[in-house]
Amino acid sequence: MNALKRSVGWTVVFTITMVGILASSTWAQEQEVIGGGRYLYERFCKICHGPRAMGDGKEAPSLQPKPANLTTLRQRNGGTFPFWKAYRMIDGREEVTGHGTREMPVFGVWFRIPDDEVSIETEWADQVRGRIWQLLSYLQSIQVP
Q: Across the chain, how many H-helices and E-strands are there?
């Protein structure tokens, strides 16, 4: 009976340890994706949407309408982050008032799958999807309560 108790005890300890390692690993991966999104935001979005994504970037005064406050996307959508709507805005499938064409001017090809692609299942398309996912992960992480 003591051997069984020890075996169960070690199984519990092992399981708790593995859950902790997996949770830590998942958290680290999430932070890596968010960090990549922060980099993309700083490179492509900050100039218009501002350093804190509040719509007050260097170019904001010259734009009409003014850039959106990206920290309130969840708040303005009934408490749910509008992942897919924002995705379509970034990749150009949904019109963004004030951007003129559907392509965000600064993003260009970095966030758009070229129209002349025969198949969207290309390495470039996968890279574009990854960039958008990182950017949206970052934006989701900075939403105000």
A: 4, 0
